[in-house]
Here is the input.
Amino acid sequence: MKGKVSKMRSLAGLQAIPESIGKAAETNRPVHYTPGTVGFSGGVVGYAAQTFAGLSVLSHVSKLTAKYKVPLYVTVAYGELIPVVESVVRESYASEGRADAVSTETHVLYFPIALSNAPYASGVLGLFERIKPASNIMIGGFYFEALAISEQGFVQGAIQIAGTAMTHQIAFFVAACDYTLIGEEIFVAGAIVSQDATLLGSITGQDLLKIIVIAMLVGGFILQNLGVDFLSIMKV
Amino acid sequence: MSLPFLKRDLPVVIVCVTGVVMIIGYFIQAPEIYLGDILGNLSLIASVIAGYATILGILTLAIVHVKHLSKRTQGQWMYSVLLLALVLAMIGVGLIGKIGTHPYFMWFYQYPLVALDTTIYSVLAFYIASAAFRAFKIKSVEGLILAVAAVFVMLMNAPVGAALWGGFPLIGRWIMDVPNGAAFRGFIIGSAIGAIAMSLRVLIGRERGILGRT
Amino acid sequence: MSGLISKLENVDRRVIYFVLIIAVVAVLLNPIGLPVPVTTPTRRYHDAIASLPRGSLVLVGIEFDAGALPENGPMLEATMRLLIKSNQRFVLASLWSGGPAVARIYLDKLKTVIDSSGKRYGEDFVLLPYLVGGETAAAALAKDLKNTAKNDYFGTPVTDIPVLKNVKDAKDFSLAICITAGTPGVEEYLRQWVSPYNMPLIAGALGVAAPTYIPYYNSGQIKGMLQGLRGAAELELIIGAPSSAVSSMDALSAGHLVTIVFIVFGNIVFLVKKYQPKGK
Here is the structure.
């Protein structure tokens, strides 16, 4: 295992990102990106991880938009994300030697989530009417605005790539978007695009953990049916 | 301390230390390692930072719209006036008496805000219909299974299904309990493991894109 | 012919919206009154409350905001009616910032019911303020209620509120109810109330979220569940107080039927186009 990087299966959604940004460059239309509407805080287990995943993919997307000179609109729903997103975009553009283009070609827009996600949803719907994006990339945690934004993106003719681990929104993304990253695929997306050995190794570790869980499920099922109280052994 | 350390390494150290403290406090309940107060304070700090970040966001929003107003941006400035006026009005009535309990605040919440929120939410009904029309095209065997399952589950949910045929609720219930339940169990477990791996990568500072790094 | 088929295959979405509006408005104005059979999860939800000894203390988690009011609101209303009818005491709490305001809407709406039942605020029920921190707040509330919510929503110290007089932690509650539009919601209550304290939990979830909680219901971690607006309507019928949920059922049926008709229509057109002889 040491020194070896496991072969990763390709994720269609990730492979479609350069294609969608290329379409944006050809049609002279911008790219819209959102890292989700769940932010970092709220004490919700697993949601901050989805936002982290969204930010990882944002760094990849913003490097491509810098490279292809495509306008980038990033919409955020929480104030705490504004400086992080601006920093990611700035560093990505700087890494492509286009730090001067940040102020002219990138726009970080804040549509606050107040008592519900409706302000964010309506803000993005209005934005899509104005900018008519050629590519709509949504990676992170979402609530009901997922379908609304996806449908509006379809109306504008955008190539849509979405990914979330939110159980009740994934179905909408699958129905409405061209490419979907389902569940844990968003957590590995950042590692795959970076091709960093340590990060890819963590994906292998993740899969090993899944194998252990499957073994426990199958073993527990067999033992329970043989009369062994597996659940008590697990202290569940 | 050098600037690179402050910008790159110190944030990772803070993330790592606080993350480890939270994990230890959550999983280890031994009285000798009582971290309850620290955990409570850390959660409180996170909430306070989120609150201040909200203020930052509102100020950012205000600055953007004041700029639109001052430049009289065509097609935009009147909406900026409306937004700023409503924000000030809501903050104003919210501060009357005990914060957020005045009848005027409740009126603002119950009538304009709730109505607008539910309107945006209701738009989903139409989007679901148009998305379903596009998505449920039977282009393969899987597409056929998807469409059939969707029809049965929809007719299970709506009273008209039971009125048309008693089998719709039964089969729809089976689809929800067995294939759907199994799929969601796998989804939840996989997502949880993925979140653990992602969080570990963040804690050890190896995840790019976090803390503004690429 | 192929031109017509292409037009039908890519029917303007506004046609779909228009037909949907007409169908829903028509049944709202002329209700059909289709029967609403009560399903087992709803029955178990009702029985979990009705079977409690009179005067039991129940936690009602209002984990939704204004956007989910049309679907979760009737669940909350029916639940509160049932709690009052079965003479239980209850604590309204929320991990969502909009939750307490929603609670106030329904406390005002049910004022007549509350007054006629003899229930009094503070003695039989209380509204706690928004609890910041999501799952951390849920855990803290379960561990030490009085230190987590030091005052009620209106600023009264909890030590001065009779219904909370002998309440320390989750063990003092007989039942937890979570009516949720997302997260924080059921899973947080499962981890922080059910697993550590073996608290019985029943849940009301949005129609779109209910499939997510089916595994927990089937494993017995959730004792009863209201699934979407249909679940709220079923509960209203069981308690004999049909309200907004029941009156929306015909519209729900109409909307579902229109969607199914368009799915079938779209597939017929798709298959005709796929299998039509070439050259036509």
